[in-house]
Amino acid sequence: MARMEMWQELSVLVEERLKATPAGERGVFTAGVAERLMTWHEALPEDEQAPFTVGLRPLLNSVWEGALGDTTAFSAVKRGVAEYMLSEYCHNDGQDGPDDADESAATATLYAAHAYLFGCYDFASWTSRRAVEAVDQHLEYLAEQEDDELVPDSDEALTSELQRQLRDLDLIASYSKELRYSSTGLPIDTSIRLRVELRAPLSSPA
């Protein structure tokens, strides 16, 4: 019970942190979460990858560019979101689109794109929750494929994911001075530096 309470408390803490985090920093956070899920999906055997999900890689790259201060990426992200809204993958007129659109990396990427475009808290919160759900779904998959004794403890895995998110928020906050101006554009050399100092560590699996 104590471990369950721990990850639930961490989930509340992440939500509180995201509410207090400036929009520019939230955009980087969501890009990082989506990147981790996308990288994991891209590492699957090719026949297990969802075409819709891998097709969102250019959109996610544009979200990164925009979140790290390249204002020219705004049009690419807006176009990518518009293409999704007009596609068969988006729910239209009450009809459900193909299931590919609900894959974790795909959903997180679309949330990250919206978080970058609109800066609102909700999309960042949904991205965080989607990563937690992805961990839970992965454990269920492992339980079906392996002996239960070899499957990581669910509460520990969920706690680890949320602790990772809090560390990411701490790292991003240390760049608040630069990211404060990301929506209006950063010097090219600053954007390049942030790709190394932020995108790389936020994208790493550990």
Detailed description of the structure:
The chain has 206 residues and is mainly α. Helix content is 71%, strand content 0%. α2 crosses α8 and α4 packs antiparallel against α5. The radius of gyration is 17 Å and the shape is globular. The chain starts with a helix and ends with a helix.
What fraction of the residues are assigned to beta strands by DSSP?
Answer: under 5%
Compressed to H and E, one letter per element, the order equals HHHHHHHHHH
> Which percent bin holds the helix content?
over 70%
Major sheet attributes: none
Average pLDDT rating? 89
Oligomer: single chain
Rg, Cα atoms, Å:
17 Å
Look at the helices and sheets and give the structural class. mainly alpha
N-end to C-end Cα span: 26 Å
Number of DSSP E strands: 0
Globally, the shape reads: globular
Model regions low in confidence, pLDDT < 50 over at least 5 residues:
92-97
Number of alpha- plus pi-helical segments: 10
Layout of secondary structure:
Layout: H1 2-20, H2 23-42, H3 51-54, H4 57-67, H5 73-85, H6 104-118, H7 121-145, H8 154-173, H9 176-179, H10 188-203
Helix pairs in contact: 1-7, 1-8, 2-4, 2-6, 2-7, 2-8, 2-10, 4-5, 4-6, 5-6, 6-7, 7-8
